[in-house]
Amino acid sequence: GYSTMIRSESVSLPHGITLDCRVSGDAGRPVMLYLHGFPEAAFAWDALLLHFSQSAHGGYLCVAPNLRGYEKSSQPVDVSAYRAKFLVQDIEALIQIESGSAPLKALVAHDWGGGVAWNLANQRPGLMNKLVIINSPHPGTFLRDLKNSPAQIAASDYMNYFCEPQAASELSANHFEVLFGFLEKGVKPTWLSPEIKAQYAAAWSCGLQGGLNYYCASPLKPSKPGESTLEKLELPDSMLQIKVPTLLLWGLKDVALLPSLTEGLSQYIPQLKYVPIENGSHWVVHEHPELIQREMLAFL
């Protein structure tokens, strides 16, 4: 038998960070780890946690942490605490706690969670058998398009807005009106029921600044007028190689992350399976859960 329940687990990492996780499935089973992005939280994965913890679909132990800065996980105040190396350190430690010496069955990630996952897969490929990325740009193609694609530069403009000191209060105003607006871009969110809206509002009420700090700490965002920080940024090829078999799922109606980001990836990811999703937006996990489940199961 299997449990169809999702339980909450607070996991203390050796370096003093605590990650609040949503967990489904039996301890001791192969682990699937799910990393959310902004402005979401661990609950966004619930349907997949329940699906893949069932014995019919592999009976995995499915773990979705709230990343540092989110919900009841640790929320360091200092922006530099959100640099990639610390985010990667969190997930590396979590894998060792949840999976022991065995590699993950799969690391599954969306948006900023994908930013962490690309880094981790590059640095520590032995920690996972497979990588599943959903609408999250590989740093090589993201840097390329932020330098050379006017369309992507315009689409990423919000990243600089998220770094402004008033962003958190403006996004929170009027019961998070602006933030809910982000969920409505691209494809009408018929999935956004009153219950799910309440889950978002509850997560956001724990504070937005932690999530916004990911943008503040990252060099990968459009240059501001008169600045050329990004133009000078070069990423060595060794930082971009992904040796893990990778499934890339991409909603083509994502207004923030354009489909051109999926082009030219074979030079970085020799074992890549790319599945474009015609009528999916950035929120494709919510829009097409059955399709996502089917593609992931086939890939696993």
Notable features of this structure?
eight-stranded mixed beta sheet; 12 helices; alpha/beta
Architecture overview:
The chain is an alpha/beta fold and 300 residues long. Helix content is 38%, strand content 15%. It contains twelve helices and eight strands. Strands 1-2-4-3-5-6-7-8 form an eight-stranded mixed sheet, sandwiched between helices. Helix 1 links the parallel strand 3 and strand 4. Helix 2 packs across helix 3. The radius of gyration is 18 Å and the shape is globular.
Query: In terms of structural class, how would the helical and strand content be classed?
Result: alpha/beta
> What is the share of helical residues?
25-40%
- What would you report as the Rg, rounded to the nearest angstrom? 18 Å
Uncertain residue ranges: none
- β-strand percent reads 5-15%
Helix tally equals: 12
H/E element sequence: EEEHEHEHEHHHHHHHEEHH
Spatial sequence of strands, sheet with the most strands: 1-2-4-3-5-6-7-8
Quick one: overall form? Answer: globular
Largest sheet: 8 strands, mixed
Euclidean distance between termini CA atoms: 21 Å
Instruction: Give the rounded overall mean pLDDT.
Output: 96
**Number of beta-strand segments:** 8
Q: Quick recap of the structure?
A:
This protein has helices spanning 46-53, 84-99, 112-123, 139-148, 150-155, 158-162, 167-183, 194-204, 209-217, 229-232, 284-287, 289-299; strands spanning 7-12, 18-24, 31-35, 61-65, 106-110, 131-134, 246-251, 272-277. The chain is α/β, with parallel strands linked by helices.
